[in-house]
Design brief:
The protein is mostly beta strands. The chain has one helix and six strands, in the order E-E-E-E-E-H-E. The model has no long low-confidence stretch (mean pLDDT about 80).
Length: about 100
């Protein structure tokens, strides 16, 4: 069996910022990159939020050709016609046909 498989993985970059901010930033997406802000609360004479870093998550798609041997199952049927003069006994069992079926792996 030869199939084209899709694969998806992520790449993560950390960007150190250490800059003061006024409010908690939301998770956002820019140009297909998910940005997750990491915030630290620091107590000083006044309380302020420091944006410590952003985690940037990028989806990457890839295709890979994969070849693999697989076992397939099949069936064979053997059909024998009964002549018209001898078919009266066999008609009820199969309309004048006698057959056998065998499954193979």
């Amino acid at each position: 069996m030869d199939e084209l498989l899709d694969r998806e993985y992520v790449e993560i970059d950390r960007l150190q910022l250490d800059k003061p901010i006024d409010a908690m930033p939301a998770v956002r997406e820019e140009d297909g990159v998910i940005i997750v802000p990491v915030v630290e609360e620091v107590l000083t004479i006044e309380r302020c939020l420091i944006l410590k870093e952003e985690i940037r998550i990028r989806k990457i798609r890839d295709k890979e050709r994969r070849h693999e041997r697989v076992l397939t199952r099949y069936q064979e049927a053997s059909v024998t016609r009964v002549p018209a003069e001898d078919s009266t006994a066999a008609r009820g069992a199969g309309f004048g046909l006698i057959g056998q079926m065998e499954e193979k792996r």
